[in-house]
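Schema walk-through. Below, the input block comes first and the output block second. Nothing else is stored per chain. Lengths vary across the set, and this one has 384 residues.
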Amino acid sequence: MSFAPDAPLNSQTELVLIAAATSVNARVDLAKMPEALLRHGFSVRYLGWERISGELNSKKSAREGLSERSILRGGGYVNDRVRFMYPVWMISVFFHVLLLGYKRTILCVGWETAFPAHVAALVTRSRIVFYDADRFSMILNLPKALLALLQILERWTSRKSVLHVIPGRSRYEWNTPNMFVLRNSPSSKDLTAAKLKAVVREDRPFTIYLNGWLGHTRGAPIFLKALKKLECSEISFCCQVAGRIDSPEGASLIEHPLVKYHGEVSQIDALAIYAEVDVVLTYYDPSVPINRKAEPNKWGDCVYFGTPFIVNSEVETAQEFVDAGAAFSVPYNSVAELTDLLIDLASNKHRMVAARTALNQFQPDYPPYEEQFDALAILIKKNL
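--- output ---
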């Protein structure tokens, strides 16, 4: 953890972006932000958490007007140690916001970043924009008393923020004028590049797509069991996989003979695969509270590519897609029902055609990312 002061900032044009991620390129939602901010005349200073040594250099962006550095290092991703490092992250954010000086404009990703920034801003009077991709209190399983305290602090952080940016309103029991809904949709630029890059084979077997974080709570154990059953099917299947593997089941999954693993790929490459597949699997373990309110990038991607998705039935936020026939659902732990559904979809093309048509009606709800973020950037400028 480093507390060296940053170089003086131009408070009129520079925005400080702080997130508990190695680089802006380490997360799909972060990667889309700098371009929109740069287009509106901001320069961007990113302060992040380098989870694995050397990762920042491999992921660092080369965009002019964007600088990136780490204010915390180590811990990795999913393990017991990283959980205990979050308080260290919050302390680091607090001191760095103090060091940034008076009346800065700071975009904080996650409550674990926005809350300590707000505490420091009581001294520096910095303006905090709170980007709340995953509501913190819904990630943790806490005793009732601690959960109630955390929710009070979340609400305080929300109300103190110049803007509270959220992917949807379903996760919140309050609604204030400073809330801004930023839907998880792809940018027009990335969409165009991805469609040009896609290689569509009409003679392919029925193709399933898994992407993003393939962890224990994102369906990896279920998918692995389903693929083993599909091996015995009379129908030809294959599976495209792209993303970060951090579970034993995920490691076994990508070794399966029906799977082609692409590794961790760029946003454009990940999008291009949507045009090359029939259905996307999006699973979220319902034992984690936030998973029942999931609002992933994948659904917006599916809308633009007309690629139906399968989601576990416990995910409440997907119900509108399922009701419209644009998505399919089965219970999270039912391998048999998932396998039967995949065999049925591969056998009955009319169901897939109807689902692709139904997805079209959701495009007005998912404007291209840059259109939404342009409106957000204008609001941030007004609060300088």
